[in-house]
Write a structure and sequence with these properties.
The structure is a single chain. With about 525 residues, the protein is an alpha/beta fold. It contains 19 helices and 12 strands. An 8-stranded parallel beta sheet has the order 9-6-3-2-1-12-11-10. Strands 5-4-7-8 form a 4-stranded antiparallel beta sheet, with no helix packed on it. β1, α1 and β2 form a beta-alpha-beta unit.
């Protein structure tokens, strides 16, 4: 949605200034990769995708959060802000390394290749991962991912609480941590629980899955770097209530000590697009506590993110300036109050700790002057969405002639419809404005938006892979506010093959023409 107001330019030297070159890239979450494992994984499909990016002169691959997903399957509601999603582990690699017999993967062949069936995947993949751990625990198998014990020591600060949390959650049949018995309802209490000893092997197994994830992701990172491709990762500003993060350190969040339930939750108030606002339900930070220890948890989180990605996009940047606090419980987001976030001081500490940090600020939505001022003071590039540009007047900040160089321009993000889907459902006023502005017929608007991104002054343009394939709403990845049916879309290998050659050559020529 377009910002409603603009602040005067901030004065002083920005804290960060990293986006200095023009380039282009593609937005594609790894779960959307093709293959025969029921979901995209870190297998050879990644390398073929990266080969295409290099062939097309695209130097950026943007992804959604890589964390372990739960109910709803959203990568923005994960069981941990630090752990990886075991669903992304390539099982064929485990077969090659002797952890699984190849025939064990047979049932996965019957899963849908066009969409992720998370229910079926849950039933099939976890037992296979458990078998792989059982085989590994018997010894005499060396994996190319380094020493497992060393991995556990290196990541112990978050890995031990996370693995314990997942093992307990399995034991309690998936119940949220606040419904567990008193002896395990908090991480400190769980240290004395006999259940921890009983589940020692299960805890170690979850640590092993993280070892596999990080080992395979390291291969993907190396494969991208070899081709000159940077990976833009993504972290939600808030964490899930039912997560290892909140369970292990409730004092960092607005959690009632007696009930273990939140005192207030996150969301956004009603606006033109939503009469009830958006009730996200994430626990809010006790920012005074974070400030008291120098934002240690946040620095740990950012350090982990920078280790996984070349660039990190932080979702909902506005909350660093002010956030909508909704008292718990609440039926909608109508009742709430704006509260001050940590502001510029937080980013000063980030700058001191990570002087070379490359961060993108997701600054979409109703931007107040103070939010714009904070972004300009930090120097972080913001985001612009072409689908939000049309239907108004020439002052709309998302129109290409109003963009700034220090920004990232998208036709749409993971939360938007595909561009063809948007155009099919947009008002005639929006459609007419887009055609007249871009001087096109509208017959291939997905490509018109891609070309507009290349032409724009924004130093980075990123377009969803669905738009490259000229797909309609059936390929939409996520519809905010819809509880089910999201995060399922996948492409098939032949679709990528058809882009190689002439399409890749055309994209490369656009990059040469517009200095990307």
């Amino acid at each position: 949605m377009p910002p409603s107001s603009v602040a005067p330019a901030a004065t002083g030297t920005p804290l960060f200034s990293w986006l200095t070159e023009r380039s282009a890239g593609v937005l594609l979450h790894p779960t959307s990769l093709p293959g025969e494992q029921g979901i995209g994984t870190f297998d050879g499909a990644v390398d073929r995708f990266l080969d295409f990016l290099k062939e097309a002169g695209l130097r950026t691959w943007q992804i959604c959060p890589l964390g372990p997903t739960g109910y709803g399957d959203s990568p923005y509601q994960c069981f941990s802000a630090f752990a990886g999603n075991p669903y992304l582990i390539d099982l064929h690699a485990l077969c090659r390394h002797g952890l699984l017999p190849q025939e064990a993967l047979g049932p996965l062949l019957f899963l849908n290749s066009d969409r992720v069936d998370f229910g079926a995947l849950y039933s099939l993949k976890w037992p296979l991962l458990a078998k792989a751990y059982e085989r590994f625990s018997k010894g005499r198998i060396t994996l190319p991912y380094g020493d497992f014990d060393a991995f556990k020591v290196q990541h112990a600060e978050w890995l031990v609480p996370y693995a314990t949390f997942r093992a307990f959650k399995d034991h309690y049949n998936g119940k949220p941590w606040w419904d567990w018995p008193d002896e395990t309802r908090s991480y400190p209490a769980s240290q004395k629980s006999t259940l921890r000893k009983t589940l020692a092997a299960k805890i170690d197994a979850h640590a092993f899955y993280q070892y596999l994830f990080f080992g395979q992701w390291a291969r993907v990172r190396a494969s991208a770097a070899k081709r000159g491709i940077s990976i833009v990762g993504d972290i939600p500003i808030f964490v899930a209530l039912d997560s290892a993060d909140v369970w292990a350190a409730p004092h960092l969040f607005e959690i009632d000590e007696k009930t273990s339930r939140p005192l207030a939750v996150a969301g956004v108030p009603p606006d033109y697009f939503s009469a009830d606002g958006q009730l996200w339900g994430n626990p809010l930070y006790r920012w005074s506590v974070h400030a008291g220890d120098g934002y240690a948890w946040w620095l740990q989180r950012l350090r982990a993110s920078f280790a996984l990605h070349d660039v990190v996009r932080i979702d909902h940047f506005r909350a660093f300036d002010e956030y909508w606090r909704i008292p718990y419980p609440a039926a909608t987001a109508k009742v709430g109050a704006w509260m001050p976030g940590p502001g510029l001081e937080f980013f000063r500490i980030v700058r001191q700790t990570f002087p070379d940090a490359r961060i993108i600020a997701e600054d979409l939505g109703d931007l107040t002057p103070t939010v714009v001022r904070l972004r300009e003071q930090t120097g972080l590039p913001g985001m612009t969405i072409l689908q939000f540009a049309f239907g108004g007047d020439s002052k709309n900040l998302y129109l290409p002639h109003n963009l700034t160089a220090n920004s990232v321009v998208y036709p749409g993000t993971h939360d938007n419809d595909t561009t063809l889907g948007w155009y099919a459902t947009a008002s005639e006023k929006e459609r007419d404005h887009a055609r007249r502005y871009l001087r096109v017929s509208g017959e291939e608007l997905g490509w018109d938006f891609i070309r507009a991104g290349y032409q724009s002054v924004s130093r980075l343009t990123v377009f969803p892979f669905q738009d490259l394939l000229s797909l309609d709403s059936k390929a939409r990845l996520n519809t905010p506010g819809r509880a089910e049916g999201n995060w399922q879309w996948r492409y098939r290998a032949p679709q990528l093959d058809r882009l190689s050659g002439s399409t890749a050559t055309y994209l490369r020529s656009l990059g040469e023409l517009y200095g990307r």
